[in-house]
Amino acid sequence: MFKRHTIKKGQTTVEFLIILVITMTIFTTLVFVVNQQLESQTNIFRSTQAQNTINAIISAAELTYSEGSGSSRAITITIPDGIEPQRTYIDENYVNIALYIGNDISDINGKSSVKLLGSLPKEAGTYTINVISKEGYVVIGERSLDATPTLLVFQMKKNELQNKSFKLQNRGSESFSIILDTKVPSSQISITTDKSFFTLTPNEDQTVLVTAESKSSGLHTGYIDAIGNFNESIRIYIQVDARD
């Protein structure tokens, strides 16, 4: 009798352990599945936040631009958690927010019908940013480097030299080291500036003299990039209309 009771008690212990293992396996599986679903829902929510922010910026920029140079408005945007700062930017017509999704980085972006200049916050949170219409572009956020005008039109005779100028302004609180980079796709025109590197202290402005020459008649284009530190730059477009 004693031996039978011991065997029965041992069987009960084994059965309990088996049930416990099965229960723990089921529980662990459920926790894993729930966590996967929560992570998926969180990623969808973050992606939606990013897309809503991009849409809001583009919509405000296009509306402000349509109201004319000098128009402005303030909008509230949300930068979601888990952004990649180096791939979160405003460039020409594009707004891009990069998010870490698992071990990968996902780029969420949108394209505006107007040129955009400025930058996005690099940390998660809710921000109020300014949207300001300028001549030929819209400034998003607080931009330190500005130029007036951003389009220089030269109407001249072939082989004639002509001068025009633009002004660079530092509206920020830090000094800017400025490099001017001139690009002309045609060898038939020459675009030069009276300076190629200089420093702009806070609230300072400098006038840049631009000299154009065309070796052939017709309409030619180019541009000058004013490249500053702090990842800010601005482009001045050049049109040369030369006649015989």
Can you tell me about this structure?
- This protein is of the alpha+beta class and 244 residues long.
- The protein has 2 domains: 39-140, no CATH class; 145-243, Immunoglobulin-like (Sandwich).
- The protein has 1 helix and 16 strands.
- The strands form 4 sheets. It has a 5-stranded mixed beta sheet with strand order 9-16-15-11-13, with no helix packed on it. Strands 1-6-7-5 form a 4-stranded mixed beta sheet, with helices on one face.
- The mean pLDDT is 84.
Helices and strands in order:
Blueprint: H1 2-66, E1 72-79, E2 89-91, E3 94-101, E4 104-111, E5 116-118, E6 125-133, E7 138-140, E8 145-148, E9 151-157, E10 161-170, E11 176-183, E12 189-193, E13 197-200, E14 205-214, E15 218-227, E16 233-243
Parallel strand pairs: 5-7, 9-16
Antiparallel strand pairs: 1-6, 2-3, 3-4, 6-7, 8-10, 10-14, 11-13, 11-15, 12-14, 15-16
Order of helices and strands: HEEEEEEEEEEEEEEEE
Total strand count, please?
16
Q: What strand order characterises the main sheet?
A: 9-16-15-11-13
Helical segment count: 1
Mean pLDDT: 84
Distance between the termini: 122 Å
From the alpha carbons, calculate the radius of gyration and give it in angstroms: 30 Å
What is the approximate shape?
Answer: elongated
Oligomerization = single chain
Low-confidence stretches: none
The major pleated sheet works out as: 5 strands, mixed
Structural class: alpha+beta
* Number of separate structural domains: 2
Helix content: 25-40%
Strand content: over 45%
